[in-house]
Structures are given as C-alpha cells and as structure tokens.
Design brief:
alpha+beta; Pdz3 Domain; 5 domains; 6-stranded antiparallel β-sheet; 17 helices; extended; membrane; PDZ_sf; phosphoprotein; cell junction; cell membrane
C-alpha cells in the first residue's frame, strides 16, 4: 500500500483509501458500500473545505487594513476630481453603490473587533466561610441572550438554588451549572440575602463574562430525560402577559398552530420547548398541557372564559342567493353532484343539531384548547389521498370552487353524492344527482350516525353520509366536501386525514381606498350591513375553529380563488405536513 506523506490532505487520503477497497468473497457487500460512500463527490468537497479551514486556522489570518471604508472615500475623491476615462467613471459608480459601502463598513467593524472573550483572572483566595465547603467558580460568556437558567429560594434552607437549566442555553452548553447548585455570588456580589428577582435582574444586566460562585449540589438533579415530542399549539402565548411563569425572560412566545419541539417535560408545570424551524438553539419555557388545562378550567368556571355553547353563532356560507338552490350542477358539459346544500336553509333542530351522536357529558365538557401532539406525514405511493374539507364564512360560495375543481379534472377529484327523501324528477338518475331513499331509511341511518350533515327543507330530508365520502376515496380520487365547522371533529380520523381549508371573502382587505393624493392617507371605508355579517362570520370561524385549519384562502373572485386552491391541492400530495400523531401510528 502506498505511503502518505505528512502533507497529504484528507481528500487525498480518502482517494487512496477508496482505491484500496477491493471486495473479496466474504465482505463483498460491505466493501462495495464503503467504496460508494467514499466515492461521493460531496464528501470529497467537504474534505477539501475542511483542509482549507484548517490551513487558514494555522495561518491565523488578519485583515490587511482596518479602514477599508476610509480608503474607498479617498479613492472616490480622487476619481471625482479627475474622472475622464470610462473605467474611472465605472469604478466611481461601483464605490458609490450602497451595497458595496455597506460591505466595506461591515468589514471594518469585524476587522477592528476582538471576538475572543476576555476573562478576569481567578481570585487568589476564597473567603473563609467557604473553606469547609466544595466551592466551584464558574465563568460563562453571555451575549444578549439570557443565561438559560432559572433560580428559586429553597423553602427549608433559604439558599438560592438553580431551579432549571434551559436546553441549548449558555448554562447548558457549558456543562458547569446543574439543577440544585447553590448560588453564592454573581460577579463578586453576594446573593445570599437577595430575592430571586433581584438576582435575575443582575444576571440579565450582565454582558460578556459572568463569574458565578457555586456550591455544587450533593446529588445531580438535572439528569436529562430524553424527550423529543412535537406539539401543535392550539392557542396564542405571550410569556410577558403570564404572571405565573417563573421567569418571563426564559419564556417562549408562540402563535396558534405553530409546531413546537418539546425537549423536556421534567417539570410537570413548565415544559421546555423550541419552535420548529427557529434558528435559536435555546429552549424556552411554555406552560405544560396539564397546567394550561387547569388554568382554562378555572377561567371557564369563574366565567372569564366563555363556553362556545353560550356564544351566538353567525351564519356560515350558503350555496346560492336564491332560497331554492336545488339546481343542476353542470359546468363545461360535466355534471358535478353534491353541490346543493339547500337543506341548510331550513335545518330542523331535531335533525340538524350538532349535538347528534354525543352524550350529555361530551356536550357539558367542551374541549380545552392547549396542545395537540403531531408528527410529520407524507403520502406514500398507492396510499389513498387525503380528504379535502372546505369551510367558509358567509359569502365564500364554496360550491363554486368545488364545481370548478371537479369539472376541470373529474378523473382526479370528486364530491360526495348527497341523500334525499324527496321524489326523483324525470331527468334525474339514482346515485348521480342524489341517492333517493325513503324517509324511514333516512331516519334509520340517522339513528346509526351515518350522516356527516343532515337537515330538512320543504318537508324533505337531505344529508351527506360518510359512506358516500368513503366511496369517492375508494376510487383513489381526492374527495372535496364543504361542511359547517362543527362537523370537522367527526372527520378528524386516521381514515380521512382531512386537510381543512378555510375560505373567506376579501372584505377587510378592500376596506382601505387608495389616497386621493400622495400626501393624503388611505381612507378606511365603513362596511355595509352585509359585509359586517361576512366579517363577523369569518371572525367567528377563525376564533373557534382556526386551530383545526391547515390553510386559509382569501377569495377575491372565483378565478383567483381557484388558482390558490389549485396550488394548495398540488402541494398536498407532494409536501410533508404535520398531522395528529394518532393518524400515523
């Protein structure tokens, strides 16, 4: 085997090693695998990059000059004095561009700054009061981010101890501070008789190097329990508004429907979590599911959190402007069934109530929105497509969208054919416009909870059954259904894996009219009565069902809304999405 010199690079070593991998009869697969790995161009590139970085690290490169901006200014003055040639004019123009000037300013800032932290020398001696105890001096380099640890006062001894270490913070990365350690001094300031909030203030105001005098805990209390759970937040959270949080600076704010990676559930009250996709590696405190549920239950019991059952529900999307909208669903020569929802115009409480199929206990105990455990999901080849559910506020006209999508591509998309007890007309066919059934059969299916939605119109019963949705999905088609938001919970199962799209008209976006002149401000146009109803309907759905929504579509007109919906549907079968963990287990 050839001998490598000391100056040989990693990529040369890798190439030589690859050439020596000769498969034998006993290890043919293993040798072949190693040869494929070592032959990857990307690995060779990484090795070369590593060598370059090591080379420059050994050279200890320093900036040629610390005043590139000043030099550029001098050059510009010379060029302005005598800029005759085209090359000189071009150079002057380049040096005058704001982007290049900004780069030069950044260069000077970096060149003049020493990034190595300056740590103070260790104290020559330690106070006599600590001689009999094991004292640890810890120095941490802290920038603008919090230190990543919280403290509390021990109820029995009165000592100030470390309560928790935030994952990914400065204290955690150092490995020198542990839960249960007793804190005696911060930057030479004794903290024995100070309140925890006063100590936290000292730590928050400290920049650069922080010196802590610590008596280590007799027993390591912070042995991390491996925890990697993903939760979708079902509520907004701002730690600055939370009086119960032990340290507001350590809190993690988040918005509803953001996915959080919970890295520690050691504390039953305060979890540690990070926002998925966030570049900040430090975890923050969020209320645990149990604690947040207790708070919401208390607020609901005291009346400060209204129950959804006591709220007045505004009207949702209606199929058309006419009262009798049991029309023919034709578009471009294609018949599209399931577009009429006339039964919603005359819903009878006994049949159309959203309480059907639920026990009194379920009705009396509305859901407390905290977190939902989720997992990544991507449809696999041959797997049934997900159900697409449209919900809409007043004015959304969902039937138009459904009709256009199915008519454009009837081989890929379909809708559920509804049931009715009315008589079949001469031009209608069984299973095309409707499934025509007797009133007795309809009510029997109703008793067995086979209908997703149902109601009465002109003494006839109408409904959409779960079986008709399953029939469309069995043909490997994407089934489009539009329902009232109350029906979403019945569809949220691993069988349907619904993707929920909230469609609302572009009302609020149109409120501002363009200014009459550049100096004048845009005037806000008041909403008329119909627009106010639309806005109230959209706000109600967003407030009470927004946590179940996967995408929001603002409908300007039919064509633009169809374009948005088409993009969403194309991504649905390709992209990875977060879904409830029960759907993929």
């Amino acid at each position: 085997m050839p001998v490598l010199s000391e100056d040989s690079g990693l990529h040369e070593t890798l190439a030589l090693l690859t050439s020596q991998l000769r498969p034998d009869s006993n290890h043919k697969e293993e040798m072949g695998f190693l040869r494929d790995v070592f032959s990857e161009k990307s690995l060779s590139y990484l090795m070369k990059i590593h060598e370059k970085l090591r080379y420059y690290e050994r050279q200890s490169p320093t900036p040629v000059l610390h005043s590139a901006m000043a030099l550029a200014e001098d050059v510009m003055e010379e060029l302005q004095a005598a800029s005759v040639h085209s090359d000189e004019r071009e150079l002057l123009q380049l040096l005058s561009t704001p982007h290049l000037r900004a780069v030069l300013m950044v260069h000077d800032t970096v060149a003049q700054k020493n990034f190595d932290p300056v740590l103070p020398p260790l104290p020559d001696n330690i106070d006599e009061e600590f001689e009999e105890e094991s004292v640890k001096i810890v120095r941490l380099v802290k920038n603008k981010e919090p230190l990543g640890a919280t403290i509390r006062r021990d109820e029995h001894s009165g000592a100030v101890v470390v309560a928790r270490i935030m994952r990914g913070g400065a204290a955690d990365r150092s490995g020198l501070v542990h839960v249960g350690d007793e804190l005696r001094e911060v930057n030479g300031i004794a903290v024995l008789h100070k309140r925890p909030d006063e100590i936290s203030q000292i730590l928050a105001q400290s920049q650069g190097s922080i010196t802590l005098k610590i008596i280590p805990a007799t027993q390591e209390e912070d042995c991390w329990k491996e925890s990697k759970v993903f939760m979708r937040a079902l509520f907004h959270y701002n730690p600055r508004e939370d009086r119960a949080i032990p340290c507001q600076e350590a809190g993690l704010p988040f918005q509803r429907r953001q996915v959080l990676e919970v890295v520690s559930q050691d504390d039953p009250t305060w979890w540690q979590a990070k926002r998925v996709g966030d570049t900040n590696l430090r975890a923050g405190l969020i209320p645990s599911k149990q604690f947040q549920e207790r708070r919401l239950s208390y607020r609901r019991a005291t009346g400060t959190l209204p129950s959804p059952q006591n709220l007045k529900k505004p009207p949702y999307d209606q199929p058309c402007d006419k009262e009798t909208c049991d029309y023919e669903g034709h578009l471009r020569g294609h018949y599209v069934a399931g577009l009429r929802r006339s039964f919603r115009l005359g819903r009878r409480e006994g049949l159309g109530s959203s309480l059907d199929g639920k026990t009194p206990a379920e009705v009396d105990s509305p859901e407390l929105l905290t977190y939902e455990e989720v997992a990544r999901y991507q449809p696999q080849p041959g797997e049934r497509p997900r159900l697409v559910v449209l919900i809409g506020s007043l004015g959304a006209r969902l039937h138009e969208l459904k009709q256009k999508v199915v008519a454009e591509n009837p081989q890929q998309f379909g809708v559920a054919v509804p049931h009715t007890t009315r008589s079949r007309k001469s031009h209608e066919k069984e299973g095309v416009e409707y499934h025509f059934v007797s009133k007795q059969a309809f009510e029997a299916d109703l008793q067995h909870h086979k209908f997703l939605e149902h109601g009465e119109y002109k003494e006839n019963l109408y409904g959409t059954s779960l079986e008709t949705i399953q029939a469309v999905m069995a043909k490997n088609k994407v089934c489009l259904v539009d329902v009232e938001p109350e029906a979403l919970k019945q569809l949220r199962t691993s069988e349907f894996k619904p993707y929920v799209i909230f469609v609302k008209p572009a009302i609020l976006e149109k409120r501002k009219t363009p200014p009459m002149s550049p100096a004048s401000e845009a005037a806000e146009v008041p909403l008329d009565e119909e627009q106010q109803e639309m806005a109230a309907s959209a706000a109600f759905i967003d407030q009470h069902y927004g946590h179940l929504v996967d995408a929001v579509l603002v409908k300007e007109d039919l064509q633009s809304a169809y374009g948005q919906l088409k993009v969403i549907l194309e991504k649905l079968s390709k992209d990875t999405h977060w879904v409830p963990v029960s759907w993929v287990r």
